[in-house]
Amino acid sequence: MTQSDNRPNTTPPQPQRVQPIGSESFNLPNCITISRLFLSVILFWLIWYDGYWITAAVLFVVAAATDALDGYLARRYGQVTTLGRILDPFADKIIVCGTFVFLLDRKVSPSQEILESGVNAWMVVIVIAREMFVTSLRGFLEKHGLDFSANWIGKAKMMLQCIAITGSLLSLSPSVQRVAGENFNLWRDGFLWAMVIVTVYSGVAYVIRAMQLLRQNANE
């Protein structure tokens, strides 16, 4: 055995290989991601044409659930692709931001009462501005080789956004309002406010994290 054989292996671990865009990119995880885009189109149609609020809420929950499923399958079976890394966040932004836009100041009058979504313009502006800013920031940092993947606060933000959207959709259904009672709108508004607060907080947290990463990278 030579002396070189006794030397410890100091080679750093290789990052997870991302496959280029090609025919192999159309795997199961990416097909699930693409299906989320088609589901969003159907969802927007259901919101645009009043009367399908429960169906729209169920469809949104199913579409949101595919976000966790495609990511899990891609990591579990080593099918992370460039196409997937582009499409997955794009599909998330389309379905969340798009649904908020369609629910903006939405009101229905099935009888003498007026049902409202509870979504105001300033809420939508905050959500879209945060998503655009963090997406741009992530692209800049990852272009320079810095890991800026989502953390727990980003996942909590996504969860609250999904709950708030589901509540807003259901609050436009007369049958849900009759069964749930007056307190349902209070819960909906509470989740909408919590969503806005966490959305702003997560944006600030990501800015602080980005500054720390850039500072560490400059000192190396």
Automatic annotation (TrEMBL):
<dbReference type="InterPro" id="IPR004570">
    <property type="entry name" value="Phosphatidylglycerol_P_synth"/>
</dbReference>
<keyword id="KW-1208">Phospholipid metabolism</keyword>
<feature type="transmembrane region" description="Helical">
    <location>
        <begin position="26"/>
        <end position="47"/>
    </location>
</feature>
<dbReference type="InterPro" id="IPR048254">
    <property type="entry name" value="CDP_ALCOHOL_P_TRANSF_CS"/>
</dbReference>
<keyword id="KW-0444">Lipid biosynthesis</keyword>
<keyword id="KW-0594">Phospholipid biosynthesis</keyword>
<feature type="transmembrane region" description="Helical">
    <location>
        <begin position="190"/>
        <end position="208"/>
    </location>
</feature>
<dbReference type="InterPro" id="IPR050324">
    <property type="entry name" value="CDP-alcohol_PTase-I"/>
</dbReference>
<dbReference type="Pfam" id="PF01066">
    <property type="entry name" value="CDP-OH_P_transf"/>
</dbReference>
<keyword id="KW-0443">Lipid metabolism</keyword>
<protein>
    <submittedName>
        <fullName>CDP-diacylglycerol--glycerol-3-phosphate 3-phosphatidyltransferase</fullName>
        <ecNumber>2.7.8.5</ecNumber>
    </submittedName>
</protein>
<feature type="region of interest" description="Disordered">
    <location>
        <begin position="1"/>
        <end position="22"/>
    </location>
</feature>
<dbReference type="InterPro" id="IPR043130">
    <property type="entry name" value="CDP-OH_PTrfase_TM_dom"/>
</dbReference>
<dbReference type="GO" id="GO:0008444">
    <property type="term" value="F:CDP-diacylglycerol-glycerol-3-phosphate 3-phosphatidyltransferase activity"/>
</dbReference>
<comment type="similarity">
    <text>Belongs to the CDP-alcohol phosphatidyltransferase class-I family.</text>
</comment>
<feature type="transmembrane region" description="Helical">
    <location>
        <begin position="152"/>
        <end position="170"/>
    </location>
</feature>
<feature type="transmembrane region" description="Helical">
    <location>
        <begin position="53"/>
        <end position="74"/>
    </location>
</feature>
<keyword id="KW-0472">Membrane</keyword>
<dbReference type="GO" id="GO:0046474">
    <property type="term" value="P:glycerophospholipid biosynthetic process"/>
</dbReference>
<keyword id="KW-0808">Transferase</keyword>
<keyword id="KW-1133">Transmembrane helix</keyword>
<dbReference type="GO" id="GO:0016020">
    <property type="term" value="C:membrane"/>
</dbReference>
<dbReference type="InterPro" id="IPR000462">
    <property type="entry name" value="CDP-OH_P_trans"/>
</dbReference>
<keyword id="KW-0812">Transmembrane</keyword>
